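Sample A.
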Amino acid sequence: MAGVNKAIILGNLGRDPEVRYMPSGDAVASFSIATSERYKDKDGNTQERTEWHNVTAFGRQAEIAGEYLRKGSQAFVEGRIRTEKYTDKEGVERYATKIIVDRLTLVGGRRDDEGGGDGHGAPDSESANPRGARNGNAGSGNRGGGGSSRPAPAPTEDFDDDIPF
């Protein structure tokens, strides 16, 4: 019987992504995301529990994570849970659980202290999907109108004034 292995998290990065490159040239990014939940204990006091998730992204998503995400950035990740066994320096067998990214969505814009832009520097979710689809204006550079990569509005001279209502 087949199973389902799906993780969906929305949280804040605990550290800047570490981007490495495999011999094939493909990028690999590792970072951690914190998710928090609030609950009331038996005495009625509000408690908060933070869970840390190790996340690994590959290919274009790894490059996007390295370019746009920083410690404190908010990200939405969909992926699969993978547990790997390893032996530490003392010879003890240990396990590490991480989320392998299938889809990465950047939440919020680029902060002012990250330099440049109009506050909307992060790509939309289409730019970070696993198939590498990009919006039609990505990477097109400045089109001579304030540095925005948004398409210019349609020219008004093509507008038909004979509308019957």
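Sample B.
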Amino acid sequence: MRSSNPGVDVAARGSSFDAVLAAARSGERRAFERLYHGLSQRVHAFARARRAADPEGVVNEVFLKVFTGLNDFAGSEAQFNAWVFTIARNRLIDEVRRRDRRPIEVPGDQADRERLAGCDDVEHQVIGRLATESMLARLDGLTVEQRDVVLLRVVSDLTVEAVAEVLGKEPGAVKALQRRAFRNIVRDFSPEAVPI
């Protein structure tokens, strides 16, 4: 994709979200890449934690929808993040509906665990730990809304307000769901399981 203004690129416009968004809308490849790289890893982690059959496929579908709808988006960076995760959550809800109609096999993710195990980056380590079967089992013990709140807050790093927007709830309701979810998760940990 070529920019409609070939002499101006993302670097020349600065690094603000508005500048990157404007550059992406004008077709600048580097702007698309910045938007993608800014959120793709978190969307992938969200999809994995929601037990998507193909997290990479979810990321691809989400960003295809994001990039084709970019001109219709209006808002701040926080609102953009909420919009992306709304698309991701809706995509995952559709997958669950399809899966309920026709069960599918989920391939093992041993290669992903091995890849994340050697990472020095804290975010990768947290995502790797969240992806363990033990934590996923604890998340599975939560209500769907509690699990989504935890994933959107912790893995996706959205604000309470952005999570409220994604879920169509008031911020106070999101805070209450988060408190209950964390209480349930902590209750399931034995004293020996909590790292010091």
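B remarks: Residues 10-193 form one domain. The two ends are 50 Å apart (CA to CA).
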